[in-house]
Structure prediction request, 496 residues.
Amino acid sequence: MYEQLLKTIGNLGAPRILVVGDFMLDAYVYGDAVRISPEAPVPVLKVTETQYRCGGAASVAADVAALGATPVCIGVIGQDDHGKKLRDNLAALGADLAGLQEVPGRPTITKQRLIGLAQHRHKQQLMRIDREPAGPLSLDLGERIIQQYREHLREADVVCLQDYNKGMLAPPLCQRMIALAQEAGKRVLVDPALGHDYAPYSGATALTPNRREAATAVGHAIESTAEAAEAACRLRRDLTLDAAIVTLDKEGAYLVAEDISELVPAKPRNVYDVTGAGDAVLATLAVSLAADSDYRTAVHLANIAGGIVVEKFGTATVTVSEMVHEIAERFGGTNTKLRSLNSLLDELKGRRERGQTVVFTNGCFDVIHRGHIEYLQFCKAQGDIVVVAVNSDDSVRSLKGENRPINNQIDRATVLSGLESVDFVTIFDEPTPTPLLEQIRPDILIKGGDWGSKKGVVGHELVESYGGRIMLAPLVKGKSSTATIEKMKALRTEAR
Prediction:
């Protein structure tokens, strides 16, 4: 399973996922709750910060973008400040917003949460204030939505319908969208609303209700694996689905598809906030299936994504790097070198207690060549443990341009893990390794001689502040990933 999960997450590519549903703005108003109001027995919130995040179907779009895919948004927002904030947030993620309709007189769905900070740091939700339109879409607006859906369906790899029962996916519109997708040969994944009648979802490819939603739809409680299996089988049969996936929070998810009926277990979690877990599951399933994953693998990955989200506060996304580290920790008996930051810190603590010296270096390591090998051998000669921090794919793109990396982060990390001179590998998303250095606090930080001087190395002040050393490694003349790539391009041109 380890190899299959890594292979899938490493080859997600950049599919176009059509995200249709109730687009929302989640607002988080943070403040110190320091006293009780003299006017009423309620806490007084002294506001310190306000954050705006993508909610509802917009949360699915954000999750899709975090996995490297392109979300194509079909939905409705208002011509108001909240609609502008939501549009700006989605645009910053690289979402295609051509199908997001601005409607005057219909407010953007907004969930405002008031968050008290006990002792200035412990978050506690005090109240939620919802602002949403009343009633379904007008017939004219529904036709405009269908027209946008038709136009974008052609280039979509998978369709996601995220129904929060806020008027966007009314039964007639939902059925038309599923029928159009069937005609176009596109898969449709549905995260349904809570309700008794799931007939509008008939003919979809897969349905992903949670325990409560599935229980309401089938009319009986789901407290055991057998009851989950019965519900999933019934939904698949009655709605003519390819697959039914009933998510069961800490227990995982029950999957029923052709020749499959099994519980896909989840890792026990310290649950902080369940907000957005269903969105992450839907997005991960969509992107995984677009990469030709089988259902079992896709549900395993969706479990991982949903589990990571519930350990975060508020509406949050999951990156490929986070999932890679989770896979490595949970399934990776064959590659114990690839570590998440927390796992790495635990390992290094024990190594330091045994008196071992930690050497740290970082880079893209895109196309491995002789220069890399000799550089890492130099690192190994300076200490006991060599930690290599590898730039994630997004990080490489920001540094090198849209055509890089040549090899994805999983492939690069796997190759480095196979080298005797490397003890541990971790993947990071940030533009610089400074956040890692602050936590790892290596004894020696090594970079290549092309940095010119030790003072030019990012993080040198931090490392030297606690007594660590900076070293510059000699370079092999004429050897670099860029030079190798340019030579390959030249050879291809000559061959033509």
